[in-house]
Amino acid sequence: MTKPCQVSVVIPCFNHGEFLPEAVCSATAIERDDIELIVVDDGSTDERTRKEIDALSARGIKVIRQETKGLAAARNAGIAISRGEYILPLDADDRLRPGWIDRGIRILESNPQVGVVYGDAECFGTRNDRWTTGSFDPDRLLRWNYIHASALYRRSVWEQNRGYDGTMPVQGYEDWDFWLGALEHGWEFAYMREVFFDYRQAERSMITRTREFESQIEAFVASKHGLLYRRQWQQQKREHESVKGICRDIGRLLKSRSKEIYLTGRLKMAKELRLIRQRFERRAS
Hints:
It is elongated and about 120 Å long. Strands 1, 2, 3, 4, 5, 6, 7, 8 and 9 form a nine-stranded mixed beta sheet that branches. The relative contact order is 0.12. It folds into two domains: 7-224, Alpha-Beta Complex (Spore Coat Polysaccharide Biosynthesis Protein SpsA, Chain A), CATH 3.90.550; 238-285. The chain is built from ten helices and nine strands. By secondary structure, it is α/β, with parallel strands linked by helices. The protein starts with 6 loop residues before the first strand and ends with a helix.
């Protein structure tokens, strides 16, 4: 009988054979027996990567080989054959931190409204510091992506989004589009103030190469998620009008109170003057 699988770790790989063993080792080091690991070879061309993937397959690790289709398609291919209730993507040049995953699963199990659990990253390579993402802010996510791809999320989020969208103008920000899709479907995001993974920084990474295409990425996202942006804008407008109404009411209250204080003060002063005049008149008589 096949043991139920709770978490599927999916590692797409394209010519990252020198780093792949570290990524795989970080996933297999997680001390749970309900986690499966799937490596997707996205048409790697270098000999070292092919040998490393052959070695993984020989060890019994599930491997998918496909022609080069890009990061989104590679993730989708791995998730499509996975069995886990929860999905955890990991890039082939990064490393998972195992300590947080039990707590992340408990969050998802205890709160059915939460679809995504995410945390921080520890950068290494050309940059060495902690990348703190912070609490979830939908307005911030609408402006630009700040949640790492290596987050733990429900399979149903992937199914509702129909996977990662490989039609973006350039590869590298499929996760931004994916998180916006989760937000669009009403899922909540839970932030854990812990390091989820080690994030390798290189001089020329996929993310750095996409920076010159930011305007195209923004246009694609705005077009695809226009209703979400409009909904958020309408909510902000309502909140703004509500704040304006509260400020207007406070202003009226302060004005009324100031007038009351002013009149009370004048009455009190008039009373004191009358008493002084009466004492003066008694003394004079």
